Amino acid sequence: LWLSMHLLALWTCWKHRSDTYFTIAGALVVYGIGAGLAEGGGILARPKEHWFLTWIPLALVTALNIGRKLREKA
């Protein structure tokens, strides 16, 4: 589930790479993945400060994707 969330976010950013906001959000997702890997073991067992670097970019990608779908619908 953890891996699939990140892959889906990166795939969404890749599909909409012409939009600057998706490019920035994708870079932040990659940065968050790197921060989680640099934290060492216990990524899921012991949430720490680096979780902000993981969850905020995922939330940004989600918000951008919802906003894009609403604009296309209107």
Sheet with the most strands, sense and barrel status: none
How far from one another are the termini? 32 Å
Average pLDDT across residues?
Answer: 88
The value of Rg in angstroms is 13 Å
Low-confidence stretches: none
Principal-axes geometry comes out as elongated
Roughly what fraction of the amino acids lie in strands? under 5%
Provide the structure class. mainly alpha
The proportion of residues forming helix, as a percent range, comes to over 70%
Number of discrete helical segments: 3
How many beta-strand runs? 0
H/E element string?
A: HHH
Main attributes of the structure:
single chain; 74 residues; mainly alpha; 3 helices; elongated
Question: Would you kindly provide a written description of the structure presented here, covering whatever features stand out?
Answer:
- The chain has 74 residues and is mostly helical.
- 76% of the residues lie in helices and 0% in strands.
- It contains three helices and no strands.
- It is elongated and about 45 Å long.
- The chain starts with a helix and ends with a helix.
- The mean pLDDT is 88.
